[in-house]
Amino acid sequence: MAGAVALCLGLITGCSFGDGSDPKRAAAQQQRFCAQFGQWQQDVDTPDADSVSGQMAIDAAKVLDREHLDTGGSHILRDTEAAVTYRMQDSGARVATYCDRAGFETLVG
User: Fold this and answer.
1) pLDDT at position 15, please?
2) Which end of the chain is more exposed for a tag (fewer CB within 10 A), N or C?
3) pTM assigned to the model
4) Domain ranges in the chain?
């Protein structure tokens, strides 16, 4: 495994350990992201909590981006960062739409 990691780090084109063609894995990653974003939405008005839950949402979005699960022309990482960092409502609405299309609309506000 260490050799594979070293090899991937050395490649210019990048390397992904995920398999976007596995529907169960993709659904689990999408569900995790939507749950994390929904948690951030709940925590956003709580002092100090939003920084932790916001970073967790951004980290989950990075996984979706890396695994090419950013479907339907959305830009999930960019929208998540804008919603969390700058409180951009349009970006948050696009994230909610993404979760809706993925089947996890109940996890976000």
Assistant:
1) 36
2) N
3) 0.76
4) 21-107
